[in-house]
Amino acid sequence: MFHEPPAACGSCAAAKIGFCAGLAPEDVMRLARVSRRSRYRRSRRIEPRPETPVTLVIIRDGTVKLSHTLEDGRQQIIDFLQPGDFALRQAPNPQRAESFEASTEAYVCEIGFGEIERLCADSPEINRALMAASMARIEQKNDHILMLGRKRAAERMASFLLDLSRRAGCRGEMPDKLFLPMSRTEIADYLSLTNETVSRALSQLRERAIIGLPKPNNVVILDFEVLQSIAAGSGEITVR
Question: What's the pTM value of the predicted model, to 2 decimals?
């Protein structure tokens, strides 16, 4: 536990674009005092602790994959949590198996939900921050549902890359140079596409000089305007 905000709080993405954004120093201190800062190696699962069956997990650095597994073993990737994002980690439910897994080495803050409830009761600012961050997460989920329900393959891929670009820009990184910490299979699962369709979509975007692929996990956006038009459904590229 922290007795004062660690120096890293000042450079944490959550302080700029996530849950802690806009909080006064005294409220950051309150959160830091009840937080457990943890590091997870790649592929390691973030499991709930017995003493806190419901935990607020704030991503400080790295990427965490959130997925659900059905009783018959089928898995669906729900989200890729990145710096500044947060989610609630709950005790395992046999009817709704949920998994938090570090896609890269990940640094997180974990806060028991009981502590969050007490802080929200004591601090209107923390309560407002939780509400604002929750509404933003709901909006992201709604956008993802719309993408899966109505957009074609090329539109999904363009939307995915633009979302990564937006997040990178909010963190102060270069929005046109993206690192993809997930595999093509994971991207396909997240976008409800096949591996082959994901590969074809990226290849076609590269062939039209909309993106560059200097390495398998690196994407350079060369033409934002065209990529945005494809994401909006007005582009001419079609992937089958």
Answer: 0.84
